[in-house]
Amino acid sequence: MKQSSWISGLLLKDLLNLRPMTKTLVFMFLIFGIVFIPMGNTMTVYFLLMIFAALLPMTSLTMDDMAKWDRYALTLPVTRKDIVKSKYLMTIIFFCAAIVISGIIAGVSYYLTPETATPFWFIVLVGSLGLFYGALLFPLLYKFGSEKARYMMFVLMAVIGILLVGWFVLFGDALTGNLLIYILITAVGSVAAFIASYFVSVRFYEKKEF
Amino acid sequence: MKILISNASEKPIYEQITTQIKAMIISGELMPESPLPSMRLLAKELRISVITTKRAYTDLERDGFIETVPGKGSFVARKNTELIREQQLRFAEEHLQKAVDAAKNFGISKQELTEMLEIIYEGE
Amino acid sequence: MSDAICVHELCKEYPDFSLQNVSFCLPKGSIMGFIGENGAGKTTTIKTMLGIAKKTSGSVKLFGLDFADHEKEIKNRIGVVFDECSFHDTLTALDVAKILGKIYVDWDDPLYLKYLKQFDLPEKKKIKEYSRGMKMKIGIAAALSHHPDLLILDEPTSGLDPVIREEILDIFLEFIQDEEHSILLSSHITSDLDKIADYLTFIHEGKIVLSKSKDEILEDLGILKCSLKEFDALDKSSFLTYRTNQFGCEVLIKDKMNFISRHPDMIVDPVSTESVMVFYARGKTV
Questions:
Q1: Hey, is the C-beta of B49 within 8 angstroms of any chain C C-beta?
Q2: C46-75 pLDDT, tens per residue?
Q3: For the whole model, what pTM was predicted?
Q4: Residue of C nearest to B50 (CA)
């Protein structure tokens, strides 16, 4: 009797479901990339990657809602915690992938256009804010369902945008050394928020009825 | 083995089954110690509840026609000549009764009827 | 342990509907039809039994095990099919196997492929291109392919034509050949249940009104036809529900044989699963 590996099962389900969307996003990314990277405008590309990384898990949650998957999933030998865990794990995977790709792009663009290349720390900042976005949105999706939370999604994106601008206003002029520290703090804060958000989501999901 | 049930009949389904199986045992179509289909298989094939077939088999066992061995299934009871004989006599009696009723109805005398019986019996 | 399912005093409150003290047991090796009109509480009961909706009170035991304490173990042994296909329609039948293969401990890929073939389901087509009958069949194939001991199906045949319905019923009869297997089947298509159910449990407005073996029900219950005057005069101790029309009364009675022997000249018709359901749904209680 093999051990049931629930997490890979649930993850696989999400990855398979997101296949068509991923193809579209990769295509968009390539187009933007080909246009912007040689220009040295990697900022847009990083943003795009982060948005995609945030969009995919959210979409999988919406797809679950539409297919009434949860009702069925709860008849499978998986706990409610497992289900939430798999979504958070998936988000981490996508974010890591986005960061790695961003890093590669950073390397490439530094080689192509050293002057206008956006520094790597920018990637970490955008990634942190993206993660923070996820940390906020997941519990909202679980609590209010993906229909209502759809509006919140865009509101939150705007909020994140404002935060980003605000961040620069506050810290943008700081010395490089301090800058790196501020970024580190933001990153750690985002990770902490993400972990806290997991526990909140679990609590919401445990109470949810289908 | 043929078992046909009628949903429209007044007779409850389990009774239809016991009647038909008893008839096959008496006629010798089902030999002693031969296996019967499992209750579940019968239920599935006839599309009836397993509770019904269980009841039919229970009744057959109670009346001594079959034996159920746990784990093995149900079998026609070992030759119980007395019991079978009784059923066979009853069968013949019923048909004779019909002949007598018809005879009386049409004004056929006992003598004519007895002659008829002898001719038919000898003729086989 | 001889009961596959034992539900005891299950209660669930919603703002506009509630399950009240739902109790019934499904003996192992049998098929129970769970019957009620739309909105009677069939789906709610099933969801509450399985923890998909949270019960207010009551106990649920599957295979003699308390549900709350043995959830994962129990869920490995049950296969559940809801009335709408629960798989995302961008998936294919093979995708489903890959996913469930990692989740169920006893998933049997060759068996699943055998069912796909038997049900005529294409392996690589997306589910969104399936017909309604095919969607139901893949749910059943998935439910059967991890060797469950108990199948729980919520309206598995509604919306399907009689030919497919019979195919599916045959699958259930095949499943029950093993007496360790049991099936709980909720439906308002009473003709299907007439064919294969061993036990019937009727639910109406969130309450169980009757739960017995089908044979017992068909033998014990009857429909009395009488005039309004006769209705008033009769002893109503065996009356369950009744309906009136311009020309008389129809009464669902129990202990039919006794009544007939006392009133041999009155009309008492046999019942069917459908008439029992309708009498409870639309009849008035005495």
A1: yes
A2: 999 999 999 999 999 999 999 989 999 999
A3: 0.85
A4: C198
